[in-house]
């Protein structure tokens, strides 16, 4: 029997507008807690009407798989992505992350070759080199904000792979833009965007900075106009079925998407990985043993990943517990049934991977960090639909293989040489916005291990600490 929207259980909103605004603001202040409480009280499917807008929340793997795969044509990217005034599109424009319909399909087809296996494997050395360079500035023992360190090293990597133009001088502007995007998406506001509030001015500056950085990259590439092996080259040279190239605006939008999404997701994946290893010293010891045995004092190479299964298990388990892409939203383009529930046309659909990844029906000891669950003998028993760190269906993250390779290589590079420990009594609070990140950064004690690694960095150029 089909259950209409009106009969789906969910919290009741206050009747007056002021009360509704306060309720939405309170819900938005801590999305992880708010979603968890809603599911705990009402079950796998929850209906809400924030400020009169119909919304249905899902956490069951069957429902999520149905929404992303079998019923994907009935759902499109929601206004949280596509709205040019209040959505993510305000920053990244209309690219594969925010577009819908035929335009999205054309863009996806043109962007996908940039992430072909042969293409991305060529970037492995750049990933390790960036990690090696970062470690040359680390103290033998001292406190660092690992969130900042991971953000900088992944930005260094995406800068070196997306373009031959050195973006080092633009790192602060890109970081500021990313901070503005997260702050903007983490702040509930009914204020019109034409009012120059401090947040609005910050957003406008972020867009200007991103435009300046990327259009400069495009102009520099046009000076030689050849395939230099970068992701930008692939975008510039890509042709659709009619032989047409992307416009500069399309290239700008895809490049901004790659820069922002391409470094923040991996940075946060590593943040959570180091937090979890610090809290689970037995797992850290196993990781160190594998790295010491396989690498024997040299930097990792792409071919080594096949010999580092535990390293891969650590990353997969971290992505389960703290998926950077913790959920996605869609909008129903027509009335659509998901499971036994009728989602009316125009309603928002929220798919929560984080809750699914912590559900005891699909995972033994769901809140425990157990990399061994990903061993060959155990992984075959996992419900594959219950694990979606990169989404699923036609719109699964196009850069997922790039991100996984980057996370594994950086983890191997860093953990081979350093042990990272949370300061005593420290509480790390996850904040779920566009991605899931540690709210107040991630200060950790880094301590050099008693392992000699042959670095490729000229030590005379390293900054002494």
Please summarize what this structure is.
This protein is of the alpha+beta class and 465 residues long.
Radius of gyration: 22 Å
- Give a short account of the largest sheet: 5 strands, mixed
Q: How are the strands ordered across the major sheet?
A: 1-2-8-5-3
Q: Within the CATH hierarchy, at the fold level, what is the topology?
A: Cytochrome p450
Helix content range: 40-55%
Low-confidence stretches: 459-465
- Structural class given helices, strands, pairing? alpha+beta
* CATH superfamily annotation: Cytochrome P450
Q: What is the count of structural domains?
A: 1
What are the main properties of this structure?
465 residues; alpha+beta; Cytochrome p450; three-stranded antiparallel beta sheet; 18 helices; 11% strand; disordered C terminus
Your description of this structure?
The protein is built from 18 helices and twelve strands. Helix 1 packs across helix 2, helix 8 (124-135) packs parallel to helix 18 and helix 10 packs across helix 11. A hairpin with a 6-residue loop joins strand 1 (45-48) and strand 2 (55-58). The chain has a single domain (5-448), classed as Cytochrome P450 (Cytochrome p450), CATH 1.10.630. Strands 1-2-8-5-3 form a five-stranded mixed beta sheet, sandwiched between helices. The chain has a three-stranded antiparallel beta sheet with strand order 4-12-9. It has 465 residues and is an alpha+beta fold.
Describe the secondary structure blueprint for this structure:
Elements: H1 17-29, H2 31-42, E1 45-48, E2 55-58, H3 61-70, E3 75-77, H4 79-82, H5 89-92, H6 101-111, H7 117-121, H8 124-135, E4 141-145, H9 146-162, H10 171-185, H11 198-222, H12 231-237, H13 248-279, H14 281-295, H15 309-321, E5 327-332, E6 336-338, E7 341-343, E8 348-352, H16 353-357, H17 376-379, H18 400-417, E9 418-422, E10 430-432, E11 436-438, E12 443-448
């Amino acid at each position: 029997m089909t259950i209409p929207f009106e009969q789906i259980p969910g919290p009741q909103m206050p009747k007056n507008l002021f009360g509704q605004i306060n309720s939405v603001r309170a819900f938005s202040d801590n999305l992880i807690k708010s979603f968890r409480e809603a599911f705990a009280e009402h079950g796998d499917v929850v209906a809400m009407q924030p400020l009169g807008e119909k919304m249905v929340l899902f956490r069951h793997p069957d429902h999520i798989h149905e929404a992303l795969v079998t019923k994907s044509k009935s759902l499109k990217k929601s206004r949280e992505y596509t709205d040019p005034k209040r959505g993510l599109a305000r920053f990244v424009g209309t690219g594969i992350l925010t577009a819908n319909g035929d335009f999205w399909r054309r863009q996806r087809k043109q962007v996908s070759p940039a992430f072909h296996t042969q293409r991305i494997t060529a970037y492995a050395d750049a990933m390790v080199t960036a990690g090696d360079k970062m470690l040359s500035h680390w103290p033998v023992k001292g406190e660092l904000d690992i969130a900042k360190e991971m953000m900088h090293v992944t930005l260094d990597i995406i800068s070196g792979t997306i373009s031959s133009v050195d973006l080092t001088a633009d790192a602060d502007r890109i970081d500021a833009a990313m901070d503005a995007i997260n702050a903007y998406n983490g702040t509930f506001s009914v204020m019109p965007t034409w009012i120059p509030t401090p947040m609005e001015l910050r957003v406008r500056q972020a867009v200007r900075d991103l435009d300046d950085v990327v259009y400069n990259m495009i102009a520099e590439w046009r000076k030689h106009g050849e395939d230099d092996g970068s992701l930008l080259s692939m975008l510039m040279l890509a042709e659709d079925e009619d032989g047409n190239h992307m416009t500069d605006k399309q290239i700008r939008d895809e490049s901004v998407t790659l820069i922002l999404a391409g470094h923040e997701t991996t940075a946060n994946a590593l943040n959570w990985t180091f937090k979890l290893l610090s809290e689970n010293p037995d797992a850290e010891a196993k990781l160190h043993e594998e790295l010491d045995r396989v690498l024997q004092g040299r930097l990792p190479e792409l071919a080594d990943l096949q010999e580092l299964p535990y390293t891969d298990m650590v990353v997969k388990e971290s992505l389960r517990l703290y998926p950077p892409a913790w959920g996605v939203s869609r909008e129903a383009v027509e009335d659509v049934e998901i499971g036994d529930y009728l989602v009316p046309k125009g309603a928002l659909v929220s798919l929560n991977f984080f809750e699914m990844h912590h559900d005891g029906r699909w995972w033994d000891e769901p809140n425990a960090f157990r990399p061994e669950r990903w061993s060959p003998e155990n992984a075959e028993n996992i419900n594959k639909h219950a694990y979606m760190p990169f989404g699923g269906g036609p719109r699964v993250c196009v850069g997922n293989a790039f991100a996984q390779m980057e996370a594994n290589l950086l983890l191997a590079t860093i953990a081979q040489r350093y042990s990272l420990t949370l300061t005593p009594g420290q509480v790390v609070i996850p904040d779920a916005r566009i991605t899931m990140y540690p709210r107040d950064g991630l200060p950790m004690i880094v301590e050099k291990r008693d392992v000699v690694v042959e670095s490729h960095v000229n030590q005379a150029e390293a900054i002494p600490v």
